[in-house]
Amino acid sequence: MLAKPGRHHACPVHGGRDGFRLFRDAEVSGGGICNSCGAKPDGFALLMWLRNWRFPAALAAVAQVLGGGSKSGQLSARPPVRNDDLNRQGTDQRIKALLRHTWTEASSWDAPESGLLRTYLRHRGLVPEVLGRQLPLRLHLSLPYLEDGVCLGRYPAILALMSCAGGQPATIHRTFLTVDGGKAPVSSPKKLMPHASDRSLIGGAVRLGPASSVLGIAEGIETALAVHQATGMTVWSALSCTFLERFAPPDGAERIVIWADRDENGAGQRSAEVLQKKLEAKGIQASILLPPGSGMDWLDVLNRCGVEGFPIRSG
What we know:
The chain is α+β, with helices and mostly antiparallel strands and 315 residues long.
């Protein structure tokens, strides 16, 4: 039996501490919910999200566990009915339409109506004007905040586009705000929107600048922006330590600088080491830079030490 379904745990995809839980009826439905990606109503949907599988692969895996696979590894059951594919296509179309609508409704960071976005960045110790005119962030003035499919209110939100490993748009990361530029008083002020089944987040990143031969990667968006502000280096955001481990650099990247978090539990450093080994195995130079103190990230360094705290300087 499952131990206390319904309790919050670390998300198996995004990491953290409490971003995921199984439904209370998980022993029957197999479903659960990620605070970033939303609800997965049954076990198949959960497996497809967790393993980045399509439905036939999830079905085959379940059949193997239950002893239903053939000796050749192929399913003896009939292939999934076409209605499932049609339903999935319809869902994907709705997701893509929602993403397009949300993005086009928002304003660029330097628009007059995006003052709240600039205020939030300044509260975090960042200077929008220094970050450059091409800062790929937008502000939506009123987005619904949902938990378990229930709207708990509407808030302004900063939007950042997360791309697949190949650079195709995948989904939108949202940071919900208060009217004075702080984080919204909700359980998960930072959330990912859903993504279509033909878009994978594995290997992807929030591309906070153009691809280049020397590229930085960090976990959080603000951390990546802090490094860029202090050093001038283009730094992308993986959003979490789990995604950091799986980051796939763009074509032409020759050197990756991993601006790791020095978490007290060591999670950020471990993920950086996993990524470094993976990149070096592919012939890509990779180095890890860690903040000086425990529990710090590079945004903390910027706010406490200024640009002098960075081992690489602009210019």
